[in-house]
Amino acid sequence: MPRINLLPWREELRKERQKNFLIAAGVAVLAGIAVIGAVNLVYSARIDHQQARNNLLTNEIKILDESIRESDGIERQKERLLARMEVIEELQRSRPEVVHLFDELTRTVPDGVTLDSVIQTDRAIRISGVAQSSTRVSSYMRNVNGSEWIGSPDLTKIETIDRGQSRERFSFTLTAVQRNPNVEEDEGVGQ
After folding, report:
1. Residue 186 pLDDT > 60, yes or no?
2. How far apart are CA 118 and CA 105, in angstroms?
3. Is 188's pLDDT higher than 60?
4. What radius of gyration, in Å, describes the C-alpha atoms of the chain?
5. Which residue among 112, 144, 153, 154 is least packed, with the fewest CB closer than 10 Å?
């Protein structure tokens, strides 16, 4: 007679396979979680590293911006100092001109002419005075025109102010230009 095994071996085999499958699935899930955690840690470390580099660059940029602002301030201060130096040099160069101007004013004034005021604006000179005759004013203008330091006289006003005792007196105003023969000679040489 044949032997028939009536034990539920298939059922046990199925339970064994199901148990092995659940263990394998659990191990796979745990391995997946471990891989995801490791990847997360790596990317987190990279992000932190990049943020630290960004912060370092930001701080260095701030330092450089401050240095640029300081160098701009120094550059502006340098320009102001150079402008002051140019003004001082110009004043030093023009210092003897005032002496020559007053010297020429006294040399060009003929007898019978007195000066009341001399006003200088830049290179323009306005001279006011009184003369005994209009010919003396003309003589004064010729003297100014022939001067090395004063030139281009232009009579702007002349009027009679006194007719007493048969002597007329004339008030006059003229403009002239201050010249510097040393500068004109230098400019002529350079051309």
Report:
1. no
2. 9
3. no
4. 52
5. 154
Q: Which residue has the higher pLDDT, 42 or 1?
A: 42
Instruction: Single out the residue of 132, 167, 138 nearest to residue 153, CA to CA.
Output: 138
- Count Cβ atoms within 10 A of the Cβ of residue 18 and give its class: 0-12 exposed, 13-18 middle, 19 or more buried: exposed
Residues 155 and 129: their CA atoms lie apart, in Å, by: 12
For the chain, the structural domain boundaries read 109-190
Both tokens assigned to 28: 């796979």
Question: Where do we find the tokens 């120094």?
Answer: 74
Identify any residues that bridge with 181 across adjacent strands, giving them in sequence order. none
β strands within 6-138, DSSP E: 113-121, 124-131
Token output for 97: 């001109």
* Cβ count within 10 A of residue 170: 20
Name the one residue in this structure whose structure tokens are 């003929």: 110
State the DSSP code for 8.
-
Count CA atoms closer than 13 A to 78's CA, side-chain side: 6
CATH class of 109-190: alpha beta
For residue 120, list its beta bridge partners.
125
